[in-house]
Design the sequence.
C-alpha cells in the first residue's frame, strides 16, 4: 500500500536537507552498501510512532537553467502542493521572517493541504523567543527545531504524523497485478501503455469503481487482471519542471509505491544513462518486483550478438538488480511486445512466492555444508533456523548465535543459493539476521 508523502519546502539555506537527512536517517544504511545505488537523493522513507511515510526534499529539485531563486522556490512549493499530503514549511530563526518566506506562505495558503510551520536553527534557549515573529506567517504555532543539535525533531514529527491522512486502500483485489512504467522522458512510456492496451485479446475495463480510477487503467489478458498505475500522470505534459530529472523521479516514486511490478524502461537507441540507474534504484529500495524493458529496439541495428551485448551492459550498470529479467521490444512496431505480459506475470508470482520452512532450511543446510560460515576472532557464525516471514518482497529471517558474525558476503552467498533453489526471478529478497533467543 502507498505511503503518505511529506514535502519539505522553504527557501535555500534554512536547513531543509539537514532535516531531510535526519528524518530518513539510519534507514538508508540498508541500501547504501549495494553498489550502484545513488546517494544524491531527495526522496526517502521515514517512520514515527509506527507510521510510515515518504519524505521529499523539494530543495533538491532545481530548475535547470534557471538561476532565479524565487522562481525556483515558487515551483518547488507548487510541486509540494501537487504531490504531498502534508507540507513542512521551513524557516530560519537566525534570519527571521524574510520576503521569500512570505512569498512561499502566499502559495501554501491556497493549497488546502495541511501546512506545518517549522523554524529551524533554534540552537539555544536564547533563540526560543525568535520563533514568535513567525506567527505572522499565519500558519499557527511554529515548531522550533535545530537540525544541528537534533532538538525539536520529535515534536515536529508528532505534528507531522497527526496530520497524515488515513490512506485508503486502492480498491483492487489482491490478485490484480499493479504495474508501473518508469523511465526518463521520451523513453516511450506512453507509447508502451498504448501498445499494451491495443494488444490482441487485451480487454480494457471501462468500469471505474476504484478510488484511483481517474489515473489508473485496469485491463485483463489471458484471464489475468492487471492495472497500469498512474498512466494519466504520465501523459500530463507541458510544465517546465517536468523535464527535470528530480521531478520525474518524484512522479515515478508515487507510482512505484503503489505498484507490485515496476517496468524500468531503457532507451535501446540511446543506451543507459545515469538517470536510468537512479530511477531503477528506487524500485529496488521499495522492494518491488522489476524487469527491464529495452524499448525502441526497432531503431537498433542488429548483428549476431547485439542483444547479448546490450544485456551485458545492463548487468554491468545495474549491479543491484541482477535478478531482473530483460525484455527487448518496440512499442512502436509492436515487435516482441507479446513477450512482455508473461514476464510481468512471472515476476509478480515470484514476488509473492512463499517457500515452506523445511525446504528453506534444507537449502540453507546444504549451503552451509558446501561453504561453512565465516569465523571472526575465533568465533564461528552458527545458523540455527530460517523462515520466510513475508512476501512482496520475500523476506527471510535467519536465526543465528550472533548477528554480528554474519558478513555481507555470506549473506549474499545465501541469497544466491536461495535464488538457485526457488527462482525468485525479478524480485528483491530481504534477509534479516536475528539472534536466537
Ligand atoms: P537547505 O538549502 O534548506 O537544504 O539547507 P541545508 O540543510 O543545506 O543547510 C544550510 C546551512 O544551514 C548549512 O550550513 C547547515 O549546516 C546549516 N544548518 C542546518 N540546520 C542548522 C541548525 O539547526 N542550526 C544552525 N546553526 N545551522 C544549521
Ligand atoms: P514517454 O515520455 O516516456 O511517455 O515517451 P513517449 O511514449 O511519448 O515516446 C517518446 C517518443 O518516442 C515518441 O515520438 C514516440 O513515437 C517514440 N517512440 C516510443 N516508442 C518507440 C519505439 O519503440 N520505437 C521508436 N522508433 N520510437 C518510439
Sequence:
Amino acid at each position: 500500500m502507498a505511503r503518505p508523502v511529506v514535502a519539505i519546502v522553504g527557501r535555500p539555506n534554512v536547513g531543509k536537507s539537514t532535516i531531510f537527512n535526519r528524518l530518513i536517517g539510519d534507514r538508508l544504511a540498508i541500501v547504501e552498501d549495494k553498489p550502484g545505488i545513488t546517494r544524491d537523493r531527495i526522496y526517502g522513507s521515514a517512520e514515527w510512532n509506527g507510521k510510515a511515510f515518504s519524505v521529499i526534499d523539494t530543495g533538491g529539485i532545481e530548475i535547470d537553467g534557471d538561476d532565479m531563486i524565487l522562481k525556483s522556490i515558487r515551483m518547488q512549493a507548487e510541486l509540494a502542493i501537487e504531490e504531498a499530503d502534508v507540507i513542512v514549511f521551513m524557516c530560519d530563526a537566525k534570519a527571521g521572517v524574510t520576503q521569500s518566506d512570505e512569498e512561499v506562505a502566499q502559495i501554501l495558503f491556497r493549497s488546502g493541504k495541511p501546512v506545518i510551520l517549522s523554524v529551524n536553527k533554534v540552537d539555544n534557549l536564547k533563540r526560543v523567543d525568535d520563533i514568535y515573529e513567525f506567527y505572522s506567517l499565519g500558519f499557527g504555532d511554529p515548531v522550533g527545531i535545530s537540525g544541528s543539535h537534533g532538538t525539536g525533531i520529535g515534536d515536529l514529527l508528532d505534528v507531522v504524523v497527526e496530520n497524515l491522512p488515513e490512506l485508503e486502500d486502492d480498491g483492487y483485489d489482491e490478485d490484480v497485478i499493479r504495474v508501473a512504467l518508469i523511465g526518463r522522458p521520451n523513453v516511450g512510456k506512453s507509447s508502451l501503455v498504448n501498445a499494451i492496451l491495443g494488444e490482441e485479446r487485451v480487454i480494457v475495463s471501462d468500469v471505474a469503481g476504484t478510488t484511483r480510477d481517474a489515473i489508473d487503467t485496469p485491463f485483463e489478458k489471458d484471464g489475468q487482471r492487471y492495472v497500469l498505475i498512474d498512466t494519466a500522470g504520465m501523459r500530463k505534459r507541458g510544465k517546465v519542471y517536468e523535464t527535470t530529472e528530480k521531478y520525474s523521479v518524484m512522479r515515478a516514486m508515487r507510482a512505484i509505491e503503489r505498484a507490485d511490478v515496476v517496468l524500468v524502461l531503457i532507451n535501446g537507441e540511446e543506451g543507459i544513462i545515469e538517470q536510468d540507474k537512479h530511477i531503477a534504484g528506487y524500485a529496488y529500495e521499495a522492494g518491488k518486483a522489476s524487469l527491464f524493458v529495452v524499448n525502441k529496439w526497432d531503431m537498433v541495428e542488429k548483428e549476431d550478438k547485439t542483444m547479448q551485448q546490450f544485456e551485458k551492459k545492463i548487468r554491468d550498470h545495474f549491479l543491484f538488480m541482477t535478478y531482473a529479467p530483460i525484455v527487448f521490444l518496440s512499442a512502436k512496431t509492436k515487435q516482441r511486445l507479446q513477450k512482455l505480459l508473461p514476464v510481468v506475470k512471472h515476476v509478480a508470482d515470484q514476488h509473492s512466492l512463499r517457500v515452506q520452512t523445511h525446504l528453506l532450511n534444507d537449502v540453507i543446510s546444504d549451503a552451509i555444508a558446501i561453504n561453512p560460515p565465516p569465523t571472526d576472532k575465533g568465533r564461528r557464525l552458527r545458523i540455527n533456523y530460517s523462515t520466510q516471514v513475508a512476501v512482496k518482497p520475500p523476506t527471510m529471517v535467519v536465526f543465528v548465535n550472533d548477528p554480528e558474525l554474519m558478513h555481507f558476503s555470506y549473506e549474499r552467498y545465501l541469497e544466491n543459493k536461495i535464488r538457485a533453489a526457488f527462482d525468485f526471478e525479478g524480485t528483491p529478497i530481504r534477509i534479516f539476521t536475528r539472534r536466537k533467543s
Residues 175-348 form a domain with the Rossmann fold fold (CATH 3.40.50.300).
